[in-house]
Write a structure and sequence with these properties.
- Helices cover 45% and strands 19% of the residues.
- By secondary structure, it is α/β, with parallel strands linked by helices.
- Strands 1, 2, 3, 4, 5 and 6 form a six-stranded mixed sheet that branches.
- The radius of gyration is 17 Å and the shape is globular.
Amino acid sequence: MPSMKDDFNELLERVRRGRELSHASFEPVYYLVFAPKLILDVKRQLPAWEARLRNEGWEVHTFSIAEAVLDIVRSAPLRKLWLRADSRQPLAWEKANASIANRLEQEKDIERRLAAKLEELKDANNGILLVTDLEALHPYMRIGAIEGALSEKFYVPTVFFYPGKRAGKSTLSFLGFYPDDGNYRSCHVGG
């Protein structure tokens, strides 16, 4: 079984080669798929991987889904209501989670923020975007919907660090317990 180091090396080789035109997509979108139990290991490796990319001439940029979700929740108009409801019933997360999911889905905040980051990198010489902390989307949404909505906006190689499992060439299971989703048009390594 390949190690995370082997998977990252394979991913980097694919990024160097670029995407080929296929029936699914040719955009430079890649997923490094790893078992959810390795989330902390991946976070520990990330600084070394970023340094390696920089040493190889890449202009490395990151986009943290966790930071985006936290910022969105902190600035949401309903935040006080969510906190009040939580203080009354601290174990009844369903309503608060449903409200947050609704906010993220209707306002398309994460999608807009990621699109803005990609636009900012449009003319980056040797730019690469690392999208981290995808687990912060649970239980609100999955990244496949965001990837699909941003079709034709991936101007630089974009690597999603995906905790889950892979089945076949284009099917992923977010966090290993969501149903398999075959709608990804990206290149998958690992898993």
